[in-house]
């Protein structure tokens, strides 16, 4: 009996050692780092090897983050032949904006996350965020405030449905919980969000809190994207992700008035739809992506033609409002040129027949720029950026402004039309861990499409921290 027990123990040890060896080979072949197995011939060696195999980290259950961005911006004044109701102040000014977000996320069930973003904001853009179409401060809202104001900027639910196959890690950030997810997946998002959270993203020009400040460099300005005065709206988005491409669709509410806060309750009459396809690729070892976007909006918008045709309206486009549609397209390209150097491009077009409703008065746009990380000068967390913007308006839109009409950002009472052209450069420096400071300069020619005004030099300083 003792001999049989000893033989049984020996066989079990042999099986354990074989299983441990097989598991180690599988882990090594899959590219996952593992501790080398202990010698199976040593006492307890097989069991020790099995225990040393790494276990997958469980999905993150909840997280919270915060950010604060303070921007001081001003211009010294500029030449102007005349000024109107929406003109940039030609005498010069200095303004500041402050934002503070506290963000909380929780995993509800497998694949489901709920996120809340509490926003506090204070301050004003130059001239109450008027007078320049490629507005120089992406943190400046038309709804400025002298004292801190608070709102829930985002309250949304995201459900991710894996389609099997290879997985990839998701990093912990402000609106994602850490954990693995399928590369092939369907993602559904519903609630209050920014349409820019999902569409028209770009690695080098997307976030005015850390990158370029200009509106035209954080989004395609020809896309009158659904949003209230603060840039957020309720809606639904669906995404299909594959290893090399993705497709997205979104359906959102629209505000009741141009650039307003109140939402239009007529859901079947007022909406914004957007679709985007993305193709990811690599040139050599350098990643890149191309995104093509199309949109169709319907809202209680005025007509430029109808306003111009009736002098009795006094150029009050609000008196021509009816449920009308606006459509357009956008192209978004990003490409790493070399390690730590990236370039980007956006081009956009809209039909330009109906009243600008949400974002800006721009009907045609083109942006081009470069972003360089500071690894070249031993500052790997610093960033230097340089970009140019050209914005234009449709012919009937030009006539509307020339006759004295006013839009979301422009309206000088008259117009000698020219494409608005902007050059922006910035340097962002890591001060300490998650604390960054930046300086920014923008040069604007023909602000608000008007050759009778400008050029304008705009200077800014930015302080940003997050955790």
Pick out the low-confidence regions.
1-54
User: Number of folding domains?
Assistant: 2
Number of helices: 5
Gyration radius, to the nearest Å?
27 Å
- Strand segment count: 18
Could you spell the SSE succession in H and E letters? Answer: HHEEEEEEEHEEEEHEEEEHEEE
CATH C-level of the largest domain: Mainly Beta
> Would you tell me which CATH topology of the largest domain applies?
Porin
Give the N-to-C terminal Cα separation: 65 Å
User: Considering DSSP H and I runs of 4 or more, what fraction of the residues is helical?
Assistant: 10-25%
Structural class, by secondary structure, is: mainly beta
Strand content: over 45%
CATH architecture of the largest domain: Beta Barrel
Main sheet, how many strands, which sense, barrel? Answer: 16 strands, antiparallel, barrel
Calculate the mean pLDDT score and round it: 90
Shape: globular
Q: Could you name the CATH homologous superfamily of the largest domain?
A: Carbohydrate-selective porin OprB
Strand order of the largest sheet: 1-2-3-4-7-8-9-10-11-12-13-14-15-16-17-18
Question: How does this model look, in words?
Answer:
This protein is mainly β and 467 residues long. It folds into two domains: 2-51; 62-466, Porin. A 16-stranded antiparallel beta barrel has the order 1-2-3-4-7-8-9-10-11-12-13-14-15-16-17-18. It has a two-stranded antiparallel sheet with strand order 5-6. α1 (2-29) runs parallel beside α2. It has helices spanning 2-29, 45-51, 215-218, 304-309, 395-402, and strands spanning 62-75, 93-109, 112-123, 145-162, 167-170, 179-182, 185-193, 233-241, 245-252, 271-283, 286-301, 322-338, 341-350, 364-374, 379-392, 420-432, 435-445, 456-466.
């Amino acid at each position: 009996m003792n001999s049989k027990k000893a033989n049984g123990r020996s066989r079990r040890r042999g099986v354990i050692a074989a299983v441990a060896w097989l598991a180690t080979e599988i882990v090594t072949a899959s590219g996952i780092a593992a501790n080398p197995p202990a010698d199976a011939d040593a006492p307890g060696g097989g069991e020790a090897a099995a225990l040393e195999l790494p276990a997958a980290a469980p999905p993150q259950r909840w997280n919270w983050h915060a950010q604060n961005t303070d921007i001081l911006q001003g211009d010294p004044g500029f030449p102007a032949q005349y000024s109107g109701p929406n003109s940039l102040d030609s005498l010069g000014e200095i303004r500041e904006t402050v934002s503070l977000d506290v963000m909380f996320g929780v995993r509800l069930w497998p694949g489901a996350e709920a996120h809340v973003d509490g926003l506090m904001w204070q301050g004003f853009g130059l001239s109450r965020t008027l007078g320049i179409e490629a507005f120089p401060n992406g943190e400046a809202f038309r709804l400025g405030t002298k004292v801190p104001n608070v709102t829930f900027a985002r309250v949304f639910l995201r459900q991710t449905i894996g389609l099997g196959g290879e997985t990839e890690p998701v990093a912990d950030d402000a609106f994602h919980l850490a954990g693995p997810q399928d590369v092939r997946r369907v993602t559904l998002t519903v609630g209050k969000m920014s349409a820019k959270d999902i569409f028209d993203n770009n690695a080098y020009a997307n976030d005015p809190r850390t990158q370029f400040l200009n509106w035209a460099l954080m989004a395609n300005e020809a896309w009158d994207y659904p949003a209230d005065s603060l840039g957020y709206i309720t809606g639904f988005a669906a995404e299909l992700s594959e290893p090399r491409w993705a497709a997205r669709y979104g359906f959102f509410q629209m505000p009741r008035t141009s650039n307003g806060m109140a939402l239009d309750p007529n859901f079947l009459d007022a909406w914004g739809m957007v679709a985007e396809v993305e193709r990811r690729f690599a040139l050599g070892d350098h990643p890149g992506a191309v995104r093509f976007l199309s949109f169709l909006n319907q809202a209680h918008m005025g007509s430029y033609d109808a306003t111009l045709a009736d002098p009795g309206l006094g150029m009050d486009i609000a008196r021509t409002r009816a449920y009308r549609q606006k459509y357009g397209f956008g192209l978004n390209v990003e490409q790493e040129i070399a390690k730590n150097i990236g370039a980007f491009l956006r081009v956009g077009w809209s039909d330009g027949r109906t009243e600008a409703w949400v974002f800006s008065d721009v009907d045609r746009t083109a942006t081009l720029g470069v972003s360089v990380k500071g690894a070249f000068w031993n500052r790997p967390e610093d960033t230097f950026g340089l970009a140019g913007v050209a914005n234009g308006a449709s012919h009937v839109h030009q006539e509307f402004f020339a006759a004295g009409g006013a839009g979301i950002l422009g309206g000088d009472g008259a117009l000698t039309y020219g494409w608005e052209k902007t050059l922006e450069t910035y340097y962002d420096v890591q001060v300490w861990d998650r604390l960054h400071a930046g300086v920014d300069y923008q040069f604007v020619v023909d602000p608000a499409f008007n050759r009778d005004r400008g050029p304008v030099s705009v200077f800014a300083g930015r302080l940003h921290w997050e955790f």
